[in-house]
């Protein structure tokens, strides 16, 4: 049975990551210092979890002793009280490997409340001689200052176009996947900086086992074909407002929610060449406004017509 790409191309060393050399040097230095109280910052898909797993592997060696690692990733659902006793018991015993510490991993620490963060701050103060605390977040503003000050903060930048292209090229050659140049550019633009998404696309291409053209990539890599959004935007530019509204209503009738349409149109706007960067900025602001309406007030298909009218006014001005 073939191994899923997400596991097949899982990094096993820092050299497998397309990250800055400075970060790799810092991580090696922290391992040698036996000081891994680290807070990783990065958007979804930036590789936070993969880097943490690789860091642990580098710290302990090839064999990772599960009894020395406590991973907490459901605090939002369970609450800190659920884990308080377990964390305390775990931290009070020493690591089974000489001259090493135990490790507590807390994913998405920005998703838990201030009280829960305070508990982990206290744990760091009390058990730092015996335990490393490694955490990750997407929004540093939601992490309390006292917790930030007790960690070494490492920010993972979004991968650049050349970095993603380099990863794609390596896998494409290794898997013998044929991808047209324009299709490759499109794939990189819609994966939105996420290697996880890129790997999922490449695995689909491998299963398909045929040359990947721009048209084929367009159909495979988007929930809603960008051809539809291309036509929709052209209708607005050409003052064909009725056709534009009908296009979105047809998508709604096919089962796509209003949010599905907004989310996919946002992806389209980021990659299209139909409009300039200034217009893109204004359209993204408009989309954010309607997405906020959905979250705070309601979702109704009439919003699609109102959005289209606002978009028409924006592009006509």
UniProtKB/TrEMBL annotation:
Pfam families: AAA. The keyword Amino-acid biosynthesis does not apply. One of its GO terms (molecular function) is DNA binding. GO terms for biological process: DNA repair; DNA-templated DNA replication. InterPro entries: AAA+_ATPase, ATPase_AAA_core, DNA_pol3_clamp-load_cplx_C, DNA_Rep/Repair_Clamp_Loader, P-loop_NTPase. Residues 34-160 form the AAA+ ATPase domain. Keywords: ATP-binding, DNA replication, Nucleotide-binding. Gene3D superfamilies: 1.10.8.60, 1.20.272.10, P-loop containing nucleotide triphosphate hydrolases. GO terms for cellular component: DNA replication factor C complex. This is AAA+ ATPase domain-containing protein.
């Amino acid at each position: 049975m073939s191994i899923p790409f997400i596991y097949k191309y899982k990094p096993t060393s820092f050299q497998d990551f397309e990250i800055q050399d400075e970060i790799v040097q810092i991580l090696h230095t922290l391992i040698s210092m036996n000081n891994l109280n680290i807070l990783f910052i990065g958007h979804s898909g930036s590789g936070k979890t993969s880097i943490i797993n690789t860091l642990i592997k580098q710290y302990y060696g090839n064999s990772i002793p599960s009894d020395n690692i406590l991973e907490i990733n459901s605090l939002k659902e369970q609450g800190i009280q659920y884990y308080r006793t377990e964390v305390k018991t775990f931290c009070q015993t020493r690591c089974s490997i000489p001259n090493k510490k135990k490790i507590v991993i807390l994913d998405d620490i920005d998703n838990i409340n201030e009280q829960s963060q305070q508990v982990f701050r206290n744990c760091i103060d009390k058990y730092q001689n015996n335990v490393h605390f490694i955490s990750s977040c997407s929004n540093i503003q939601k992490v309390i200052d006292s917790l930030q000050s007790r960690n070494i903060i490492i920010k993972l930048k979004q991968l650049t176009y050349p970095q993603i292209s380099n990863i794609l090229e390596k896998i494409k050659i290794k898997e013998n996947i044929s991808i047209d140049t324009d299709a490759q550019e499109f794939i990189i633009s819609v994966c939105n900086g996420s290697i996880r998404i890129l790997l999922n696309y490449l695995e689909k291409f491998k299963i398909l086992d045929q040359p990947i053209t721009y048209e084929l990539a367009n159909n495979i890599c988007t929930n809603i074909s960008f051809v539809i959004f291309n036509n929709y935007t052209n209708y607005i530019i050409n003052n064909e407002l009725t056709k534009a509204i009908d296009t979105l209503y047809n998508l709604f009738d096919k089962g796509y929610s209003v949010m599905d349409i907004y989310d996919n149109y946002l992806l389209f706007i980021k990659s299209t060449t139909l409009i300039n960067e200034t217009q893109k900025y204004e359209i993204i602001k408009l989309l954010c406004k309607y997405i906020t309406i959905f979250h705070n007030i309601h979702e109704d298909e009439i919003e699609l017509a109102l959005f289209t009218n606002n978009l028409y006014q924006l592009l006509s001005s």
